[in-house]
Amino acid sequence: MTDNIVTSAVIIGGGIFGVSTGLQLARRGIGVTIVNDGPPANGASGRSLSWLNSARMRSEAYHRLRMAGIDRYRTLSARFPNANWLRFEGGLTWDADDESNGVDAAYRHEVSLGYDTRHLAAEDIAAATPGVDARAITPQGAIFNPGEGWVDLPTLIGLLLEEFAALGGRLVTDQGAARVVIEGGRAVGAETATGSRFLADAIVLATGPAVPRMAGEAGQAIGDGTPVALLVQTRPLAHSLRAVLNTPRVAIRPAPGNTFSLDADWAADEGVTIRKDGSHEIDEAVVEALLAEASKVMEGNPRLEIASIGVGGKPIPGDGEPVVGAIKAIPGYYVAFSHSGATLGLIVGELLAYEIATSRQHPMLATFRPERFLSQ
Asked: What DSSP character marks residue 45?
């Protein structure tokens, strides 16, 4: 083994970042083992709104990375044009009717970037995208981004794992929490709660909201802004809504089987209590209020019923920007930690695998490296 040649890798985490990176490495002929505490997609990837977008304002580098991420999904969509788990039918967003409303500024910013965007009044919504109750649109109007879409991450992860297995990749599940093994100042493997050890040339930490804590155990600081998230999945409902909705009180994403995924920051803040042992309690009244808010913005104001509720950390770095690449102080140690995991899922796996396999830094990741937190 040398510092320049990687023939084996262990990835801790069976979400979209871990599985995408593992598959890309396997495609390059590297032997890969993915280790997960439970079944694949049992963490943040299983409770993500999974809106594919680069809407609103962010750094230029982050916008470019997100657009590359969307491009990879379009390539995938061309392979599976009839998939019910990956759709590009637009995104519609509007703000509250108060001084915080930023629709006009966001629209002008998106126009300046060449991002496909339309500023619509309430009466114009039906002609652009179906299934929305126009009475819910605030006077400032809404932004419709026809190039946006959504993905069902558990389905995608399952698809990627099929190819991963065909290429000889190894998936080890239900191992409990794992840790990165560091010997002689170098990351050399992963050890699970069951005592199993998996050694390799490169170790990737892709454990979603647990990344900052786990990196901290090795003395490496990664800024953490992770909040608690709550995602409600509805029972099947025949409805014409096709776009992802982001509104002042609820976000709604169509899902396979005529179901819908719902979330809102206020619902997580008010409806979830985290106990000292790490378990959680959900306020049923808050969940019902979230369902009511969703009904208000959907045409016909349908009655929505709960199928399942997901609760857990939503991975968000402290400065909001992705954290991807090598930890320079510990050779062989790589991390992938970001919000917008769905949008970035395929491109982050591709670029991180490139860096691991070639020992070269990719310019698109230049501003997202872990060491930027050392000076904070």
From this structure: G
Of 313, 334, 352, which residue is a domain's last? 313
N- to C-terminal Cα separation, the chain:
34
Q: Which residue bears the tokens 């698109």?
A: 364
Rounded Cα distance, 298 and 315, in Å? 29
Structure tokens at 320: 């909001």
For residue 253, tell me if it sits in a domain. Answer: yes
Placement of tokens 């190039």 in the chain: 147
User: SS3 for 182?
Assistant: strand
Locate all alpha helices (DSSP H) within 248-303, ordered by sequence: 265-271, 284-297
What's the whole-model pTM score? Answer: 0.95
Would you state the structure tokens that stand for residue 68, as one six-digit string?
């590359």
83 lies in some domain: no
Range of the domain at 278: 91-146+227-313
Query: What is the distance between the alpha carbons of residues 291 and 151, in angstroms, rounded to a whole number?
Result: 21
Name which of 318, 332, 331, 314 is nearest 372 in CA terms.
Answer: 318
State the chain's mean pLDDT as an integer.
96
Name the H helices within 80-152: 103-113, 125-128
pLDDT in tens, 305-343: 999 999 999 999 999 999 999 999 999 999 999 999 999
Burial pattern 238-265, b for ≥16 Cβ within 10 A else e, equals ebebbbbbbbbbbbbbbbeeebbbbbbe
Structural domains in the chain (count):
2
Statement to judge: residues 233 and 307 lie in one domain: yes
> Which helix H or strand E contains 71, and what residues bound it?
helix 60-79
Angstrom distance (rounded) from CA 238 to CA 260: 10
